[in-house]
Specification:
13 helices; 2 domains; ten-stranded mixed beta sheet; 33% helix; 14 strands; alpha/beta; Peroxisomal Thiolase, Chain A, domain 1; two-stranded antiparallel sheet; 413 residues
Amino acid sequence: MMSERVVITGMGAVSPLGLSAEESWQNALAGVSGIGLITQFDTSDFLVKVAGEVKNFDPTNYMSARDARRQDRFEQFAVAAAKEAVEQAGLAATEINSERVGVIISSAIGGLGSLEEGSRTLIESGPRRVSPFLIPMLMPNGGAGLTGIEYGFQGPAFSVASACASGADGIGVAWMMLKLGMIDVAVTGASESTIAPVGVAAFDRLGAMSRRTIGEMTPQPFDKARDGLVMGEGAAVLVMERESHARKRGAQIFAEFGGYGSTSDAYHITAPAADGAGGARAMRLALESAGVNPDEISYISAHGTATPLNDAAETQAIKAAFGDLAYNIPVSSTKSMTGHMMGATGALEALFCVRAVSENVLPPTINYHTPDLECDLDYIPNQARETPVEIAISNAFGFGGHNAVLLIKKYRA
């Protein structure tokens, strides 16, 4: 690959913690929980009652009412997060070659709510009542396509689907394209909105979800009492650029994107390998691609879903990757506050890593009270921690055995 560095110049987010990257980050540092009772449908017949919903989101703040009606909620999130990131980076205000701007905004599942509604319409009212916009509303690449159309970006535009690693893998692919010189700028991240009846029911039937409700502590990553994930939704987008391109146009640089590792467990379609070997290998590959030694890592943003199997396997993976150093590296799961945003979760956690290395503060794992012998690392319990942060890695693991790890560095000119 070419030697030129890749930097991050813009960030945008819509999450259970806020309607911007700044609000989401500040609430994460404050240990605010974004979990509440599900409002998007009637949960009377459901065992699962809570989720990390995006609150007070009005799509007409980002697009016309006509366009909003023709977009799924996950696409609206993608457009909103991309708008914030593009504006912060100043892309629309500076003269750039639109053919050299790629848009890689991923989704694991796409417009699940629209698909469910369209299926219901078909059954209840017949095929002629199905919306002509159903296909564009459900396709997982919709967020990437709509963002490219919004700004006239004519470089590569697509979505990566690797379950809950989708956002991280998409960002990693964008980095590789920048390093190879295929593009100068990437608008990259992920969006997801699966808090729909079929989504909640299906994940619950897998045995993956917490059935606790308001007033009961959930989710609890790495805690002995953890009982499953809580579904979240939202989007996060980064603007990444070749360093020379960013400096030439005078962009503010927040951090350097240093490396990426991707592996497969080749073990089970939903369960992680108990020894964490695939995740450990992805972490080592991320370090190797960045030319970084294990003792240089300041923080690990964990996948940390709060399922019994995942948290134990990820702890094993961190130990396998770092050996005894693992006990000296702070680890936290912001899913304790956002819930699990499925394909979008890796993108938001990468954004949080950018903020961590640029501001020297680490977000906590809230709801952590009872240590587990299988999870015995430093999980930054309940309160943010101010500390020097030079290099952070972000883990994202997904069904199918997918493991993606991103490495973010403090930028030094």
